[in-house]
Specification:
Blueprint lengths: L10 H24 L27 H27 L5 H17 L7 H13 L34 H13 L4 H29 L4 H8 L3 H9 L4 H16 L3 H12 L6 H13 L4 H26 L4 H4 L13 H9 L6 H20 L2 H4 L1 H14 L10 H10 L2 H15 L17 H23 L20 H25 L4
Helix pairs in contact: 1-2, 1-3, 2-7, 3-8, 4-5, 4-6, 6-7, 6-9, 6-18, 7-18, 9-10, 9-18, 10-11, 10-12, 11-12, 11-17, 14-15, 14-20, 15-17, 17-18, 19-20
Length: 521
Amino acid sequence: MLRMRSVGGHPLEVGMFVVGAVLGVLATGYLAVAGPNVGIHLQGNHIWFYGSSGAPPPRVGRFSAVALNNMALGVFAVAWLMVGLVVRRGGVAVRALLVVGAVWSMPLVIAPPLFSPDALTYTALGAALNHGVDLYQIGPGAAGQIAAVRGAEPSWLYTPSPYGPLFLDLMGGLSRLLGEHMLAVFVALRLLTLAGLGAIGVMVARLARWNGRGVGRALWLGVLNPLVLISAVSANHNDTLMMVVLLAGLLLAVRGHPLLGILVCVVAAGIKVVALAGAAVIGVDYALRRCGWSAQARALAVSGLLAIGGFAASVQLYGRGWGWVRTLSIPGAAHEPLAPMTAIADVLNPATPPTHLVGLVGSVVCAAVIVGLLTRLPSWGLVRVAAWVMLALVVFSPVVWAWYLLWPVLLFAAITGRRETQMLVVVSIGMLFTMLPGGQATLLLLGRPAGDQVMLVGITVLVLFFAVPAALRRLGPRPPHQPNEPSLTRPSAQSDTVDREQHRRTSATVHHSERHRRSPL
């Protein structure tokens, strides 16, 4: 049982924390019970341990069911904000946050995958791989009428997979180990994802501590984030597994092992290729820390060759050839309104959207933005630049889904400032309402181009009021860079001992004053 003194402070803060915790579990409990009836991907037989018709009860109706679902998401968001207000005042112990996160997650753990059917497609991919299907040529439906494929989305049944060979081998291994039993494979994937979320929490906490940020605030913004919990705990997206490895690579880099960090990011690219962006940021940061142009050029060449060579070697090691590189553009074929580039094309010409032209322009702008961000490495630091690069990749991507926001959110959580925190809170809450539990995009209910227009208005407000001010606050003059003294290397043992002693004395003084000023429960 959680000790109440873990939430020390004014009784109002304690009450707000408890109410937030209760509201959160009520919201996730409602989603677990009613969510399966607001969607289409659970209509098949024996998809989960308890049944679902895939349609709302007759007495409720679809409109009311969707409204109630959004109300539950709204309650979940309010609960998260209430807990965050207490965290901001420094009145919550880390163990209390972890308990709340576990309680919020329990209903999602026992419920079928909500807000996306991708995890059921993953199980189909693993089974098809064991039946000799080349998933980079055709989808899992080519395996024939086997039970393990029944959970896959119809649109993915005969579509080649865009996922990396490491992830396909993982799913193939789980399927082979568990006898191609769809539910058993999915449960194993869910347990693996939960373990991955725990590892993410540990690494986000370490990065936050390394960058002088509060661990509680980082965990609240990253791990307890409703968008993260729904995407990782319920939907079990492989983005979670990718971020585990990517964060490990960045953590190695900031601790003085950049080349090893690049290799770890290359491993993460075996799950989703976007992780190569992390290797690129680490490589440029490694080069900028050298003295003189020639030394920087050599360091950049070394890191580039290491990333490219490691990637090529991993492709050969997996033994599936380069066919999967060709399938990376397949997700972009989805014409979804959440992608700003797609929405712009639809608004420009609803009849025949110039998707290719707008996407090309977006790619050029994205490349320019990323180059500009890389120049800020000496002043912003590795993790912050990596977070902004990931955000740029999401914004300019030809297709965007809510769970893509896990890439920047989990990085920003470790280093975020006030403006960045505000931006991420707005984005995280807003993206909660972009998907129905069955996996459909909410904006499509408005039709096109109305859904695209709503999305563009939202992204414009976000950019003008949050993203631009947050970036401008950090675009001041860069301090003189000292390449031979990386700012993120660990202090010496002597200074570390002195810092710990000072921290101990300060903590004792603060604790003594807190006992007289506040009455912990």
